[in-house]
Design a protein that fits this description.
By secondary structure, the chain is an all-alpha fold. It has helices at residues 3-14, 38-41, 51-66, 69-77, 87-90, 100-124, 142-157, 162-178, 184-201, 205-221. The relative contact order is 0.18.
C-alpha cells in the first residue's frame, strides 16, 4: 500500500491542522476539537476518471475474484471493531474482565476515531464500491483507521508482540476490500488516519494517564510485570 508517501506530510501538518467548519458537536473524549482534521490532512480520494481510480478498480476486481470462502468468513468475523480481536495474538488473559481499564481506554479511543472518520466520510462523500450497501461514505475506511490506531497503542503496551499485532491489524484493515465494501485507497487513507489519530492521542495528558494505568493492568494480567 502507498501509505508511507502520505504519512510524513500528514504528521507534519498534525500540530497546525485547523478545526473543521460546521455545527458544534459534543466534544471528543480524549482529543481537543482542533487536534485532528482529516479533511485537511488527507489527500482527496481518486478522481473517477484517474489512473488511481483504475488501479482501485483493478485491484478490487482481483481481490474479489481470488477470495475464498475462508477469506469471506474471516472478513465477516472482523466486521466488529474491538481491541479483543487481538486476544489470540496478545494472550488469552487479554479480556475485558481481566483488563477493564484497557477495555475502557480502547473503547474511548475507538469512539474518538470513529467520530473523526465519520466527519471525513461526510466531507469527501465518496460512494462505496458497486454492490456494497451505500450507507455512508467510503473514504476513508473506519475499520482501517481503527486497526492502525489500535495496533499502535496496543503494541506500546505489549511491545513483545509488536510485529504480530501489526500483521493482524493489516489483515483486519484489508478485510474491508475482501468484503467488497471499500476500495484499496479507502483502506490506505484509513490507515494513515488511524496513525495520525494515535499520534494525537499519545500527546494528550488525559490519555497518557489512562494509558499508563491500562498498560500496567494489561501487563499484569499477561504475567509480564
Amino acid at each position: 500500500m502507498r501509505r508511507a508517501a502520505f504519512l510524513a506530510t500528514a504528521l507534519a501538518l498534525l500540530c497546525c491542522a485547523p478545526a473543521s467548519a460546521g455545527k458544534a458537536e459534543a466534544p471528543l473524549y480524549y482529543l481537543p476539537p482542533a487536534a485532528v482534521d482529516l479533511t485537511v490532512l488527507l489527500a482527496p480520494p481518486p478522481d473517477p476518471n484517474s489512473p488511481l481510480m483504475r488501479y482501485d478498480e483493478k485491484k478490487m476486481a482481483q481481490v474479489l475474484t481470488e477470495r475464498t470462502p475462508a477469506d469471506l468468513a474471516r472478513a465477516a468475523a472482523d466486521e466488529k471493531r474491538t481491541v479483543f480481536v487481538f486476544t489470540p495474538i496478545v494472550g488469552a488473559a487479554f479480556t475485558a474482565a481481566k483488563a477493564p481499564l484497557a477495555a475502557a481506554l480502547f473503547k474511548h479511543a475507538s469512539d474518538d476515531t470513529e467520530r473523526l472518520i465519520e466527519a471525513a466520510k461526510a466531507y469527501y462523500d465518496r460512494p462505496r464500491p458497486p454492490g456494497a450497501p451505500q450507507t455512508h461514505g467510503s473514504y476513508p475506511s473506519g475499520h482501517a483507521a481503527f486497526a492502525a490506531c489500535t495496533a499502535i497503542l496496543l503494541s506500546q503496551m505489549v511491545p513483545e508482540k509488536r510485529d504480530e499485532i501489526f500483521q493482524r491489524a493489516s489483515i483486519f484493515a484489508e478485510s474491508r476490500i475482501v468484503a467488497g465494501v471499500h476500495y484499496p485507497s479507502d483502506v490506505e487513507a484509513g490507515w494513515i488516519s488511524g496513525t495520525v489519530i494515535a499520534s494525537a492521542l499519545l500527546r494528550q495528558p488525559k490519555f497518557q494517564a489512562d494509558f499508563a494505568a491500562a498498560k500496567a493492568e494489561v501487563r499484569k494480567a499477561l504475567g509480564l510485570l
